[in-house]
Recover the amino acids of this structure.
């Protein structure tokens, strides 16, 4: 089972078209194994991206170097998944009872 | 079907039991049809809501991106609600007296099982890609609408990999064949989840469709109905202008083959959880979505073409 320990989901807010281009370039860096939940298209829509632990430092440095604003939407994805799994199991047991 | 727990996420087997329960309880209205199989041989079941022969129809699908679990959960509840509202709700009764409704609750069953057992964030199909170690095609980049254009990847390792050719994904091919052979589908709604959007064509190009004004009006009316329950705010517009250019999407294909009322919902995610919407929000999401869907279906019913 693939786990997501330490993966973060960043919400990135580009403020101009140049920053959108920088984000599109980031999308092309396949070795970072980023999973874009919303893709960089225009400044009206924030970009959400899941970043594996091993790429966090690189991605954050990239954003900071390019003065691109971001926040951490999910701090540790695995924690959220674990809680979802537990919720699902509990609800199913309740139903059987 | 009345005791099925719609308020939690389920495995594929459980969802299929939910489908069977609806069919069993509403035999005179609902039947289950298999329109094909997935890459790994799982059935693609549609619920058909019908009160007579040779009717025009409305198509609704959910879960083409497997990790968007709220969509499969919502679609199952919508199926139950449609069945229970027939004969009680005048609008649904009138709709189903004129139109059939086809509901595909799990469009990408292989991906759904994989997202339960191996990788919660899995989005694509599970088809092997020749010459690559990476698996899967993004089935919403694989339709024959601007296939291979902007907003889809040619890299099999990408989550938005378009596949080698249009309709190469068997899941897509099965639906496309069904729609073509039916010939009287008048409305097509695809249910996705992310950040509350109600979208209409186009995505593969950034020009407005010929029926822009009407689609925009219907979309806004559906979003207002949806919002009336819990105040959830939706953005409405073309795929390209509202979110981003994306080629090979289902509603662009259906619109281009003449299904004027083609829409895609992006259900709520609260902006914090992505595809991990807490189970406590399944019923509220389903209930509000039903109101939006109902508006679209009423418009299809009242505006024959």
């Amino acid at each position: 089972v693939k786990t997501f320990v330490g993966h973060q989901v960043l919400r990135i807010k580009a403020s101009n078209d140049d920053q959108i281009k920088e984000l599109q370039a980031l999308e092309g860096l396949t070795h970072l194994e980023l999973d874009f939940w919303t893709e960089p298209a225009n400044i009206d829509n924030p970009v959400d991206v899941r970043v594996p632990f091993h790429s966090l430092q690189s991605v954050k440095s990239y954003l900071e170097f390019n003065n691109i604003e971001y926040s951490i939407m999910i701090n540790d994805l695995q924690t959220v998944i674990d809680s979802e799994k537990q919720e699902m199991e509990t609800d199913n047991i309740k139903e059987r009872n | 079907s009345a005791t099925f727990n719609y308020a939690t996420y389920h495995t594929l087997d459980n969802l299929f039991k939910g489908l069977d329960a609806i069919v069993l309880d509403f035999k005179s209205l609902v039947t289950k049809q298999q329109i094909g199989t997935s890459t790994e041989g799982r059935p693609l079941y549609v619920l058909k809501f019908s009160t007579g022969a040779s009717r025009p129809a409305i198509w609704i699908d959910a879960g083409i991106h497997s990790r968007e679990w709220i969509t499969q959960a919502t679609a199952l509840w919508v199926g139950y609600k449609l069945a229970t509202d027939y004969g009680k709700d005048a609008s649904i009764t009138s709709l189903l007296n004129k139109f059939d409704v086809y509901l595909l609750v799990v469009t990408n069953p292989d991906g759904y099982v994989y997202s339960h057992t191996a990788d919660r964030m899995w989005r694509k199909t599970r088809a092997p890609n020749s010459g690559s170690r990476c698996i899967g095609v993004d089935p919403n980049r694989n339709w024959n609408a601007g296939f291979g254009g902007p907003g889809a990847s040619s890299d099999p390792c990408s989550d938005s990999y378009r596949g080698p050719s249009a309709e190469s994904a068997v899941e897509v091919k099965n639906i496309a064949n069904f729609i073509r052979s039916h010939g009287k589908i008048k409305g097509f709604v695809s249910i996705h989840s992310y950040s509350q959007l109600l979208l209409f064509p186009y995505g593969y190009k950034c020009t407005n469709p010929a029926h822009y004004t009407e689609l925009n009006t219907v979309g806004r009316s559906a979003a207002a109905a949806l919002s009336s329950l819990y105040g959830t705010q939706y953005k409405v517009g073309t795929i390209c202008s509202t979110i981003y250019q994306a080629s090979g999407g289902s509603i662009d294909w259906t619109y281009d083959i003449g299904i004027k009322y083609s829409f895609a919902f992006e259900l709520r995610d609260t902006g914090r959880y992505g595809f991990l919407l807490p189970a406590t929000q399944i019923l509220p999401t389903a209930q509000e979505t039903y109101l939006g869907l109902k508006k679209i279906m009423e418009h299809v019913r009242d505006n024959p073409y």
